[in-house]
Amino acid sequence: MSQPKPVLRIHTAERDDIADLVTRRPVPGRGINNVGAFLFLNHHGPQTYKPGNRGLPFGPHPHRGFETVTFILEGDLAHRDSAGHESIISKGGVQWMTAGSGLVHEEVSPEAFKRSGGPMEILQLWVNLPSKLKMVQPRYVGVQADQIPVVEADGVKLHLVSGEWQGKTGAIESLTGVFMTWLEMKAGSRIAFDALAGRDVFAYVARGEVAINGTSVKGFNLAELGAGDSVELVASSEAVVLFGHAEPIDEPIVSHGPFVMNTVAEIHEAYADYQAGKFSAPVNVG
């Protein structure tokens, strides 16, 4: 018999705007530093940009030791990095960047979006890497909405970003076996996940209201789950939920700014390497 993971606490995404960008952050936050391998989530928007806007403010900056997974719920996002990767991903698409040994990248609005404006909503999740992979060669994968498998059943659309679900394989292969999806749920719909014993489970309600194993969780809230092996989500309204799970990484987490390593010495080394130009700068490809 399955044992549902209880909701231990609900963590509200606190407002922490960046310039004119509406930003909420549930983790890290008051009472929670991370959800196992899931380190950080920024929820940008929802908001509408006027024509002639300055766009997103994330110019060139470095990362090392973890991965960023960015979900574009509304709008467009341009990526460029020091390894030569470049793309513009639109509504419904995902960017998965493995910073590994070090990248400088920028995440900005395309020129067309800055000229015309429009709706924008983006979720960015940081996923830890174990020590053996922290210095892996950097990687970037950008996929549009139509490249992501979608499983529809009983009023739920499951966008399969990574992992496997009902015989389908996600668009992106995770280095550490992370299962990652975002769910569009109609009012009254439900979906259940099992075989989660010993996994770090991430469940963030971005829109609407969802009962997670019987506990109501409203939009802009993260559910912290306890021990068990199953999770059931039941939507009481139209909802969007970011849901994933990962193998625990039983290692120290030392983070400072844009770097996540295992020791303070490794953080110092990351800053030294960046300042020495070893990450290089984003290529100018127009």
Structure characterization notes:
There is one protein chain. The chain is built from two helices and 26 strands. The longest helix has 12 residues, at 264-275. It has 286 residues and is mainly β. It has helices at residues 111-116, 264-275; strands at 7-12, 14-15, 23-27, 38-49, 58-63, 66-74, 76-81, 86-90, 94-98, 103-108, 118-128, 139-143, 150-153, 156-162, 164-165, 168-169, 179-185, 190-193, 200-207, 209-212, 215-218, 221-225, 231-235, 239-246, 254-256, 259-261. A hairpin with a 2-residue loop joins strand 13 (150-153) and strand 14 (156-162). The radius of gyration is 18 Å and the shape is globular. The protein starts with 6 loop residues before the first strand and ends in an 11-residue tail after the last helix. The protein has a seven-stranded antiparallel sheet with strand order 1-22-19-24-17-14-13, with no helix packed on it. Strands 2-3-4-11-6-9-12 form a seven-stranded antiparallel sheet.
Q: What is the rounded distance between the termini? A: 57 Å
User: Given the structure, what is the number of helices?
Assistant: 2
> What share of residues are in beta strands?
over 45%
Largest sheet: 7 strands, antiparallel
Provide the fold topology.
Layout: E1 7-12, E2 14-15, E3 23-27, E4 38-49, E5 58-63, E6 66-74, E7 76-81, E8 86-90, E9 94-98, E10 103-108, H1 111-116, E11 118-128, E12 139-143, E13 150-153, E14 156-162, E15 164-165, E16 168-169, E17 179-185, E18 190-193, E19 200-207, E20 209-212, E21 215-218, E22 221-225, E23 231-235, E24 239-246, E25 254-256, E26 259-261, H2 264-275
Antiparallel strand pairs: 1-22, 2-3, 3-4, 4-11, 5-10, 6-9, 6-11, 7-8, 7-10, 9-12, 13-14, 14-17, 15-16, 17-24, 18-23, 19-22, 19-24, 20-21, 20-23, 25-26
